[in-house]
Write a structure and sequence with these properties.
Layout: H1 2-31, H2 42-60, H3 66-79, H4 94-120
Helix pairs in contact: 1-2, 1-4, 2-4, 3-4
Length: about 120
């Protein structure tokens, strides 16, 4: 039963969370009319998997300060001008993209929390 909880929790955090986050990001870019079909998403996907795995395990084992770490991680990404490399990909609305990255990280980390709570058995029926 524990293995099933972990499989479901990690699937929610990594698979479903990744799909929803990518849908969100693409939808926002479409709404602002700032789409580039050559924009590479491989690095954000691989980073998203790593950060979701890290924070899902932190939530599952009820590590102290995991919420503070999540907020700090979002602040560090913004302070490091995450998404600035998007200028090389002919993105015209960099402010919108940076906001999308911030909100996308929040959506992604929400799924990390939900997945971690499922792994811990707190959201398990």
């Amino acid at each position: 039963m524990i293995a099933l909880r972990w499989a479901v929790g990690l699937s929610v955090a990594l698979l479903f969370g990744g799909i929803v986050t990518q849908f969100y990001a693409r939808r926002i870019r479409h709404l602002v009319g700032d789409e580039d079909h050559h924009f590479r998403i491989a690095i954000p996907i691989s980073l998203g998997i790593a950060e979701n795995l890290f924070f899902t395990i932190g939530v599952a084992f009820e590590l102290s300060g995991v919420m503070v770490a999540m907020v700090t991680w979002m602040a560090a990404k913004m302070a490091a001008h995450w998404g600035k490399q998007a200028l090389d990909n002919r993105v015209t609305h960099i402010e919108t993209i940076r906001f999308t990255i911030l909100m996308g990280t929040m959506v992604s980390l929400l799924f990390s929390m939900i997945g971690g709570l499922i792994c811990a058995g707190k959201l398990w029926l």
